[in-house]
Here is the input.
Amino acid sequence: MNRVPRMSGFTMMELLVVITIVAILAGIGAPSFRNITTSYRIAGEVNGLLGDMQFARAEAIKEGQNVTICVSSNGTSCTGGTAWQNGWTVFPVVATAPTAAQSAATVLRVQAAFSGSDTFVDHTSGTNTVTFDRNGLVSGLNSGNGAMIALRDPTSNVYYTRCLQISSVGSLQVTQNNANGSCT
Here is the structure.
């Protein structure tokens, strides 16, 4: 007797069940993925400034001369106000006026502006320039007590806020915000 071979595959019901399960998992996972990417972006940005500040301090000690890091929107001079998200530059202070980078040849590092809309501002004292002396101590802060630069995402979500604390003795530390979302 000749039997017709049976066709193998999925039924329509099986396909709909699998699509429903995938849609439910994607609906649960997408917001978590967004949270993870925002958290990584914020960590990368704050660690970028922290790393360049540590570099500036190390260069000041190594070279035995003042090194400045300042907000710079053009990469060659201290322009850009107090918004660190506009970018910054690191340069040795070899002239009597440490308010501008002397030339592109003396600039040690440049960080371009952030591509997103995160804010990175010292709301307590308006710090836009930090100078490390040959001993690694800080001068150039608007407050003798140091500075606290807050990095916030566009929604100002308390969970994502990071604070870069700069002490007058050159100590640098990144902390998470306190419960009310401010860096204190």
Observations:
- Residues 12-63 form the longest helix (52 residues).
- Residues 12-66+115-176 form a domain with the minor pseudopilin epsh fold fold (CATH 3.55.40.10).
- Residues 96-101 have pLDDT under 50 and may be disordered.
- The chain has one helix and nine strands.
